[in-house]
Amino acid sequence: MSDVLNVSDLRRSFTQGDATIDVLRGVHLSVAPGEIVALLGPSGSGKSTLLQAVGLLEGGFEGSIRIAGEEAAQLSNDGRTRVRRDSLGFVYQFHHLLPDFNAVENVILPQMIRDVTAADARRRAETLLTTLGLGHRLDHRPSQLSGGEQQRVAVARALANRPALVLADEPTGNLDETTADIVLAEFLRLVREEGSAALVATHNERLAAKMDRVVRLHGGILA
């Protein structure tokens, strides 16, 4: 089976005044189906830039990005949107839940964009949230949830459309250590149960060690 993600010779530079800063200098990376890979590096090393590239969230990159077998780097805006919708899920350091919607509605919405019926979307949302221990919090809005609960809802939302690849950028970075351990364990368990692959950016060696493989970003190159 082909890789879920294959990145080849990915480059990204920024201009700052008269200087050119090479953030990514020929990155090569593959992620196999069902594999959870930790992307390790200190703050400012370019982890978020790499995830933005793989997530097709901005342009200005050079190189190849194949997602679920499709060359995605040069797609039109509509094509990139389609790949994000059909193949990718996202979890960020901050949950980015919609404040006026409750937990189950936040997980329903991305499914509705894919034309899932309302009944099926609700059933899927309730199943994911219950699996994450939030069956009693379905009707609560983000402001009524703890930080750990908010991140669990964000995890459920990311997996709602059964993505081939989940991209997580410091998904527990806004939580205390005990809560971070619990949320990460739930995230890893659910990703594995769902059969998705994941690329998880972190600066935490201890958390990275819990994943299937660790790659390190240093000097704009992965090792």
Automatic annotation (TrEMBL):
Protein name (Swiss-Prot/TrEMBL): ABC transporter ATP-binding protein
Matching entries from Gene3D superfamilies are given as: P-loop containing nucleotide triphosphate hydrolases (3.40.50.300)
Keywords linked to the UniProt accession:
ATP-binding, Cell inner membrane, Cell membrane, Membrane, Nucleotide-binding, Transport
Which SMART domains does UniProt cross-reference here? Answer: AAA
What domain of life? Bacteria
**Cited InterPro entries:** AAA+_ATPase, ABC_transporter-like_ATP-bd, ABC_transporter-like_CS, ABC_transpr_LolD-like, MacB-like_ATP-bd, P-loop_NTPase
Q: Where is the signal peptide?
A: none
- Which organism is the protein's source? Sphingobium algorifonticola
Q: Which GO terms describe its cellular component?
A: membrane protein complex; plasma membrane
Instruction: Give start and end of each ABC transporter domain.
Output: 5-223
Any single GO BP term: protein localization to outer membrane
Please report which protein family the annotation says this sequence is part of: Belongs to the ABC transporter superfamily. Macrolide exporter (TC 3.A.1.122) family.
CDD domains on file: ABC_MJ0796_LolCDE_FtsE
Task: Cite a single GO MF annotation.
Answer: ATP hydrolysis activity
